[in-house]
Amino acid sequence: MNLRFWYLKLRPKRPFRISRETTYEKTTVLVGLEEDGLWGLGEAVPYPFYGDTLDAVVGFLKSAQNVLKNFSSFELHNVEKELHRLAGRNFSAKDGIMDAMFDILGKRIGQPVWRMLGIPRQPVPTSYTIGIGSLDEMVADLEEHPNFQVYKVKLGTDKDLEIVKELAKRTDRPLRIDANAAWTPKEALRKIQFFADLGKIELVEQPLPPDDIDGLKFLKERSSLPIFVDESVMTSKDVVRLADAVDGINIKLPKSGGLLEAFRMIHVARAHGLKIMIGCMLQSSLGIAAAAQIAPLVDYVDLDGSLLLEADPCVGLEVDENGFIHLSEKPGLGIECPSIEIKL
C-alpha cells in the first residue's frame, strides 16, 4: 500500500470551549492509502493533551510510508502490530492509517465496513454538544438544535449549577454532563447531588483529573449518577485499570489507535460490566463515519464533531434532523472528500 496525506483546516461554527481550552481552528490530517488503483481514506486528529501534536502525527506518517509498502489491505492485524513497533503511542496517526485500511478493504470486497464487521445496520442517536459560553449563549445553542434526543453539556465554570438548571428547564430531553477533568472529588460530589435532584441527567463524564483513580472510586461509591471517564482511558489496558472506579468509558478512535483496539475496549469493558460510549473529537465526517461503524454496539453515542463545524470538507455521512446517524450502504466508510485531490 502507498500512503499519502493532506491537511484539513477545520473551523467550528462558534469558538468551541471546554474547561481547559478554547478551539478557534483545528488542523487534522487526511490519510490516504492506495492499492491497485483504489484509495482508502482515514483521518488523524492531533490532540496535544494526549501527546499527539500535528508534528508528531506527520512524523509518524512519514515513518510508516515505507513500512506500509510491504503490506496489503487484508493484513489489518499485522499492520497494527507493525505500527505499534514503530512507536508506542502516536494513537491518532495509527487511527488514521487503520481507518484508511478498513475503507480500502471494504472497497476491495464491495461492502460497507459495518457489514464486514458483522454489525447490525440501525440508526443511532448522537448527542449534541453544548460548549461553554455565557448562559444566554448556551441556552441559544440548545434552542437552535431542538430535535436532538440528548445533549452533552460542557462544564468546568463557576456557574455550573446555574447552567445545568437553566438548560434542564429548556428541554424535555436528557442531559449528559462533561466536566473535562475540571473538578475536585468533593466539588464533583456536591454538584452531582444537585444534578441528580433535577431528574434529567443521564451521566457525568470525566469529573476529575485523569490520574485521580482514588477520587473516581470515592465518587462512584457515593454518586447517584453513573460516572464515566474519557481522558482517563485510552486503550484496553486502561479499561482494566479503571474497572472498579467507574461505571462507564468513552472510547474515541483517535486516542485508542483505531477500530481494532476499539473492539478490544468494548469486549474488555463488557467483561467488567461497564457501560460504553463512543465519542469523537472536533473532526470531519470522515473520522466520525469510522467511529459510527461500531456505534450500534455501544450504549451511548456522542458523534457530533463534524456537526459543530462551519464547513465539513467530506461528504457521505447521513445525520437526520432528529440527530440519528444512518450507516451508509456504500463500500468502505462511505465517505468522500471532494475538496482534496486524492492522487499519488
Describe this structure in words.
- This protein is of the alpha/beta class and 344 residues long.
- It folds into 2 domains: 2-110, Enolase-like, domain 1, CATH 3.30.390; 124-326, Enolase-like C-terminal domain (TIM Barrel, Alpha-Beta Barrel).
- The protein is 37% helix and 20% strand.
- It has an 8-stranded parallel β-sheet.
- α2 (76-86) packs antiparallel against α3 (91-109) and α9 runs parallel beside α11 (259-271).
- The longest helix is centred in the first third of the chain and has 19 residues, at 91-109.
- The mean pLDDT is 96.
Topology (SSEs and partners):
Blueprint: E1 2-10, E2 16-18, E3 21-23, E4 26-35, E5 38-44, H1 54-68, H2 76-86, H3 91-109, H4 113-116, E6 124-125, E7 128-130, H5 135-144, E8 151-154, H6 160-170, E9 175-178, H7 185-198, E10 201-205, H8 213-222, E11 227-229, H9 236-242, E12 248-251, H10 253-256, H11 259-271, E13 275-278, H12 285-292, E14 300-301, E15 318-319, E16 324-326
Parallel strand pairs: 7-8, 8-9, 9-10, 10-11, 11-12, 12-13, 13-14
Antiparallel strand pairs: 1-4, 2-3, 4-5, 6-16, 15-16
Helix pairs in contact: 1-2, 1-3, 2-3, 5-6, 6-7, 7-8, 9-11
